[in-house]
Specification:
This protein folds into 3 domains: about 10-15 and about 385-465, Immunoglobulin-like (Sandwich); about 20-380, Neuraminidase; about 470-540, Immunoglobulin-like, CATH 2.60.40.10. Helix content is about 0%, strand content about 40%.
C-alpha cells in the first residue's frame, strides 16, 4: 500500500482584534423617539432597552464609560440627559438641533477622564458650530454641563471668533498620535472643511481649512446628508441628498487636511453613510443601502462598483452607523412604535456576502426608529490587530501587531505549556507550537494613555494548529464486484475542515469498486494534501452458476472450474480446490 503523508503544522490565519484607543465608549445607543439599545452583553449582541427621555428626528450622540460600558449621558444637541434619563444639570439650551443630520458628537477630553466635549452643529447654518464641556464629577457623578464652557463658538482663526455658517454635519476621529482628536465641520457657503484639533490644552482656535470644489453652483450646502471618517482615519465622505451625490476625500489624521475630492453622482438620495470596519468598503443609503468600493478609481468607476445590498423595495432612508460589534446598523424612518433597526452582519465582505439583515434589533414596544443614529468618534471602532500568519512551509507561526502607532510593547502568552518557550515580548514574533490542537493565546498590549500613564489591555483568542490530513485506504486486495471500500482520515480532530476526493472527483467516504486497478483518494485542508493508493488485482462474483441439473453416462465425468485469484473454495463434497471433477463411478 502506498501512503503519502505530510505532517506539516499550520495555524489558520486568524485575526485577533482589540481596541487600544477606546473600548466601550459606544456601548449605549440612544436615538429616535425613546429608542435605545446597549452592547453590554457577554455575546456582544445589542439588547433593546426602555427609559430613554429623548425624541429626535435625526441627530444625536451618546457616550459610555470606556472600561465598564456604563452609560454616562446622551443628547439630541439641545438637551443633555444623564444615565438616569433625567435632564443633566445645566443640560438645556445647547445650540445643536434634533433635525441636524449630525446634531452633536461627544469627544473625550484628552488628559481628563472625567470630562467630555459636546460639539454641536445647527439646522440653521448661521448659528454656527459650538462646543460645551461636561464634567462627570458634578451632581454626585451624574455630570453637569459647565456654566463657563457652554456653547463656545468654534473660531475661524485666533483673531476671528465670530460665528460662521456651517452645514448640519460633523465628524470626529482620533489623531495619529493616539492621544488627541480631530473634529471636522463644513462651511455652509464656501464648502471648505474646518478641522479642529482637540488636545489636553483645549480646542484649537486655528482650524485646518481645506478648500474643495463646491458640488452645487447655488452656493450653500443643502440640508440633509451625513459625514463620516473611516475608522483607519484615511478617508472622509459627505452626502448631499438633494444633489443625489456623495463626495469622497482623503483625510490626514496627522495634519487634519482633506484632499483629493471625488464627487459621485449616483442618482440616489444619498443620506446615511458608513465605512466598513476595515475601511475598504463604503455603504451609502439613498434608496435602500448600496455598497461601493471607494478605491475603484474614478467617480464613474466608484459608481459602477455600487451593489444594492438591502432588500429589494426598501426605499426608506436613515442613517448608517458602525457598532462596537463591528457590524453596521441602519435606522429606517418609521412612524410607529416597536420599530426595527436593520443590520449588516459582515460589512468587510464585498457584495451580497456582507449579509444584510432587515431585522437586526427589535426595539421596545414604545420606541420609534427615526432617521438618526448616534454619532460617535469613529476611532472608537478602530482596532489594533494582531495578525497571525500561517506556517504551511514550516512550523513557525508569525505574529505581528498590524498597527504599532499606539502600542508600546506586547507580551504574548501562547497557552502552549509543553513548549520550552511559552511567551515573548516582541511586537513581531514567531512561535513553534509543540503539537496540533487549539491554543488560547493571551496578548497583553501596553501603551501610554492620554495622561501619560502606562495602560495594559488584554485580549484573548484561540489559535488552531492543524495537520495535513492523514489518509488511509485498505491494503491491496481482491474483492467482490460492487463492493465498496472506505477512505479514512486518521486525524480528523487535527485536520478539519478538509475536503476528500477520489480519483474520479467523487467525495463520498465509501467508494464502489467495479473494475480492477489502482484507486486513489486525497484529502486537502488549508495546510496541504494527504493521499493514499490501493490496488484491486481481481474481482470475483458473489454467486456462481454451475449450469442446469444434468444426467451423465456411467463412466463419464464433469469438470467444474470456478478459479478466481485469491478466492477460497468449498464444494459439497468437502473439496477445496477451484476445479472439481464429478464422475459417475
Amino acid at each position: 500500500m502506498l501512503n503519502f503523508r505530510r505532517f506539516t503544522l499550520l495555524v489558520i490565519a486568524w485575526f485577533l482584534a482589540f481596541c487600544v484607543v477606546a473600548q466601550k465608549e459606544a456601548n449605549n445607543w440612544y436615538f429616535g423617539n425613546n429608542a435605545a439599545f446597549h452592547f453590554n452583553t457577554l455575546s456582544g449582541n445589542p439588547v433593546a432597552i426602555s427609559g430613554s427621555a429623548m425624541k429626535t428626528l435625526e441627530g444625536c450622540s451618546s457616550i459610555s464609560d470606556r472600561t465598564t460600558g456604563r452609560l454616562l449621558f446622551y443628547t439630541d444637541g439641545r438637551t443633555v440627559y444623564n444615565r438616569n434619563n433625567v435632564t443633566m444639570t445645566n443640560g438645556t439650551g445647547l445650540q445643536g438641533h434634533s433635525s441636524s443630520s449630525h446634531s452633536s458628537v461627544v469627544v473625550p477630553f484628552p488628559g481628563n477622564k472625567n470630562k467630555y466635549y459636546i460639539f454641536t452643529v445647527p439646522t440653521n447654518a448661521n448659528v454656527g458650530a459650538k462646543y460645551s464641556v461636561v464634567d462627570m464629577t458634578q451632581s454626585s457623578g451624574l455630570g453637569a454641563v459647565s456654566t463657563t464652557q457652554k456653547n463656545i463658538q468654534l473660531a475661524q482663526s485666533p483673531t476671528n471668533t465670530m460665528a460662521y455658517p456651517v452645514a448640519d454635519k460633523c465628524a470626529a476621529i482620533g489623531h495619529s498620535n493616539g492621544r488627541d482628536y480631530w473634529v471636522v465641520v463644513q462651511h455652509n457657503t464656501s464648502w471648505s472643511f474646518y478641522a479642529y484639533l482637540v488636545t489636553s490644552s483645549g480646542v484649537s482656535n486655528t482650524p485646518v481649512i481645506s478648500t474643495i470644489t463646491p458640488i452645487s453652483l447655488s452656493g450653500r450646502i443643502p440640508h440633509y446628508g451625513c459625514m463620516k471618517i473611516s475608522p483607519d482615519a484615511k478617508k472622509l465622505v459627505t452626502c448631499y441628498a438633494s444633489l443625489q451625490t456623495f463626495a469622497l476625500f482623503d483625510f490626514n489624521s496627522r495634519t487634519g487636511a482633506v484632499t483629493n475630492q471625488i464627487s459621485v453622482n449616483n442618482g440616489q438620495l444619498d443620506y446615511g453613510v458608513e465605512f466598513s470596519p476595515d475601511s475598504k468598503l463604503l455603504y451609502v443609503n439613498g434608496r435602500g443601502v448600496r455598497q461601493y468600493n471607494p478605491f475603484a478609481g474614478t467617480a464613474s468607476q466608484i459608481n459602477t462598483s455600487g451593489v444594492l445590498v438591502s432588500s429589494t423595495g426598501m426605499n426608506l432612508q436613515g442613517q448608517l452607523q458602525l457598532g462596537p460589534d463591528l457590524k453596521i446598523y441602519w435606522s429606517k424612518l418609521s412612524f410607529s412604535a416597536g420599530s426595527v433597526v436593520s443590520r449588516i452582519d459582515s460589512p468587510n465582505v464585498s457584495g451580497l456576502g456582507c449579509a444584510f439583515r432587515d431585522t437586526g434589533v427589535v426595539l421596545t414596544s414604545s420606541a420609534v426608529a427615526r432617521l438618526g443614529l448616534p454619532t460617535f468618534v469613529q476611532s472608537f471602532f478602530t482596532t489594533t490587530t494582531l495578525e497571525v500568519k500561517d506556517a504551511c512551509d514550516s512550523s513557525w507561526v508569525k505574529i505581528s501587531v498590524k498597527d504599532t502607532a499606539a502600542v508600546d510593547s506586547v507580551l504574548y502568552v501562547y497557552g502552549d505549556t509543553a513548549s520550552k518557550k511559552n511567551s515573548s515580548w516582541n511586537k513581531l514574533d514567531s512561535h513553534i507550537f509543540s503539537q496540533p490542537g487549539k491554543f488560547e493565546v493571551i496578548a497583553y498590549a501596553f501603551y501610554t494613555d492620554k495622561k501619560g500613564k502606562v495602560v495594559r489591555d488584554t485580549l484573548r483568542d484561540t489559535i488552531e494548529v492543524l495537520q495535513v490530513p492523514i489518509v488511509q485506504l485498505p491494503n491491496d486486495t481482491t474483492i467482490c464486484v460492487g463492493d465498496s471500500v472506505p477512505g479514512l482520515i486518521l486525524n480528523p480532530q487535527y485536520s478539519s475542515p478538509s475536503e476528500r476526493y477520489w480519483q474520479d472527483s467523487s467525495q463520498n467516504v465509501w467508494y464502489q469498486i467495479d473494475t480492477i486497478g489502482k484507486f486513489y483518494m486525497s484529502a486537502t485542508n488549508r495546510c496541504g494534501t494527504g493521499s493514499d493508493t490501493m490496488y484491486v488485482d481481481s474481482l470475483f462474483k458473489r454467486s456462481f452458476d454451475l449450469g442446469n441439473d444434468t444426467v451423465i453416462c456411467l463412466g463419464d465425468s464433469l469438470v467444474f472450474d470456478i478459479s478466481d485469484t485469491s478466492a477460497t473454495y468449498l464444494w459439497s463434497t468437502g473439496d477445496t480446490t477451484p476445479v472439481y471433477v464429478a464422475d459417475s463411478t
